[in-house]
Specification:
The complex is a heterodimer of chains A (530) and B (320). Chain A has 530 residues and is α+β, with helices and mostly antiparallel strands. Chain A has 18 helices and 19 strands. Chain A has helices at 2-14, 19-28, 33-47, 76-85, 134-145, 181-184, 248-256, 271-276, 305-313, 317-324, 355-365, 383-395, 411-415, 432-439, 454-464, 469-486, 515-518, 521-524, and strands spanning 54-59, 90-92, 99-101, 104-109, 115-120, 160-166, 169-174, 210-216, 220-225, 239-244, 262-263, 280-295, 329-331, 371-375, 401-405, 421-426, 489-502, 505-506, 526-527. Classes of the chains: A alpha+beta (530), B mainly alpha (320).
Amino acid sequence: MSRELSYLSRLVAKGRLDRRAFLGRAVALGVGAGFANTMLARAVRAEGPVRGGALRMGLSGGESTNSLDPATWLTQVPQNFGMTWGETLVVQSAEDGSARPLLAESWEASDDAVEWRFRIRQGVTFHNGQEMTPEDVAQTIRRHSDEDTQSAAYGILTDIEEISVDGRDVVFRLARGNADLPYLLTDYHLVIQPNGGFDGPAAGIGTGPYKVEVNEPGVRHVGLRYDGYWRDDVGHVDSVEIIVMNDATARMSALQAGQVHIINRVEPRTVDLLARAPGVVIESVPSKGHYVFVMHCDTAPFDNPDVRMALKLAIDREQMITQILQGHGSVGNDFPINEAYALYPQGIEQRAYDPDEARHYYERSGHSGPIVLRTADVAFPGAVDAALLYAQQAQAAGINIQVQREPGDGYWTEVWNAQPFCASYWGGRPTQDAMYSTAYISSAEWNDTRFKREDFDETIFEARAELDENRRAELYRDAAHMVRDDGGLILPMFNNFLDGRREDVQGWVADPNHETSNLRAASRVWLNSA
Amino acid sequence: MRRFPLLTLIAQRIALGVLLLWAVSVLIFVGTMILPGDVAQAILGQAATEQALHNLRLELGLYDPPHIRYLDWLWGVLQGDLGQSLTNRADIATSIGRRLSNTLFLAACAAIVAVPLALLLGLLAVRYQGRWPDRVISGTTLTAISLPEFFIGYLLIYFVAVQLGWFPSFSTVHAGMTLGQRLEAIALPVATLTLVVLAHMMRMTRAAILNVMQSPYIETAELKGLRRFDIIRRHALPNAVAPIVNVVTINLAYLIVGVVVVEVIFVYPGMGQYLVDHVARRDVPVIQATALIFAAVYIGLNLVADIVSILANPRLRHPR
């Protein structure tokens, strides 16, 4: 049986049998669909990449205001296109989230994690033929970490005090120890450019597998394979075309009609319909992003720990995932970290829906009367429905949540981080430190739960400069417990990235770090039909 | 003066149109002035430092009094200089040029299909008034106009592009395409726009001609023994031109300035999408420029409608 199945899976990999027929035969042979799919993926990888073909992607998140200057990238189209022509020093692993070398070959830190030495790869050329030097690397990071820069990466580089070149190495001196510097350098804004992009920030010249051919912001971007590229495990197709499609229905129908190979941001509401279309495969990949309800720990009634605990126990996480995410997500445990992060604290007990326990805490708190929860469509997809569902679930614990719908315009200035209880979302960060530093330490501007605990801050700061991984994991476990049990964060669910592809697109890497395979789908996949 | 009354009249109309356009330009300028917050604040966002705000205000000339800034802007516009986009520093005239020509191309194609079709269907409906062709034509066009444009677009995408695969489901056009490829790409948006504007024009044609058909001279023509379709074509239509032209131009204006939704669902790189992108970023110079162009198109087309009506109907040349 398994021999026949592996023969069939090789046929699919070669493109002589379609996936649906394969799954049908697998089921006929008495094999579960899940196992058959795994088998298929393995066969395709074993068959090896196919070179050639023209890949077309229909992506949302492109505007006519976009620029090729990496410092300005905010939305998905410039991000994805940027990762076709540019490369960073370090990239995060799709398997365990650890930092892996890219344009840097290796790195080492001083014991206090203050001085970092990155060895730069040799023999890599820019698309203008120039060789990439450590000086280019130093200049790039200087441009993004300069005080007057408008770079979106400035916030993560503020600790860098001095950058120098030493032979083949680039040396960073930090203002305080940070064990996560390699992770910070995975940021997609930090694309290495000739002379750091000081001469032509928007020239679109990088070291990536494709070189910029057409750049029509808000309409389409085209890249052609760069012959002098330094490695052969990515960059399989001859050309990449990214077409801006901000309308979700337009993306779906283009994929169904086979006019594009890959689309991003499939809507959870319609994903099941799209999955049934012939020739279409949905890539549902767990992400670090999460949908939340945030309470201000310093405002009544949320300043009472019993009220916070009651509200955390009064939410049915499983039902949220089925109804709001249509199953494309995973349960949250009231701290903002999941298994996609390096050093994830395993084994913390999962908090479950418990109306009786919630009622107990609620009565003990002595609070009575309605609790206003503000929400809007922009908070996250389905946020209004989620709030109403939550109110219903809390009813069973005798908690009266009053849902107040706010206008989407101005939600992020007037409601979020201003009102004491509202719906919101967070995207993932490269490391636990980055996540906690952005929103949970006392001094964080975006501390949207007003969670202010000195011992928590100290834990995070200690972990930041700690190079011993075991000790670090220990510290992050403590931090997770503090946020989970005492914080103002109600985190019912982590959402999945939902991308769609045609069957003939092979080699898709499920990558939790960013959508569309960590923005690198265009250089990782190949076309079986080519 | 008196020797060319028609020319005088047309000149008057054009002068009025220019005056109106100037008034609109003042309105646009005032409108952007009274938006809350100043432009520099809108561009740099909340995290802006005082120094950066000051630099940007200097650069944009925000410290000058409003009327000086208005005159500066107007002077630039008169010379064809629409200024620079604030978000990506691109020259507005060049970027709008490409977008505008795309929009005009789509509008022209839709008009070439829709206008003759509407007139023909209108004539047919009158010819067979009250019988089944009239009912079918009126019924189907009425159905089409009752559906929202995005719904028609999605229906066409689903059936024609996804199920039948006859035409592409999206209409991205670019410089490297031949005319044939372009026409194929925009087939579905053209069909959508045609369905949207058809009913309005067709029904006006039908009503206007039917109105004329009641006149005594039509009876005379009938008594002369002319074929009914000839009567409609040669005697009724010319006298019904004025209202028809009015409706046609309003629809043409819609095809140019009102197609944002259609452009979005078909991913067509026209003016509508461009405007939406820049409104989202509060890119004031671009919004001013596009608003001015849209206003000019509207006023221009209405001017044409007026003049054609005057030419077609001598009575309008002598206002009482």
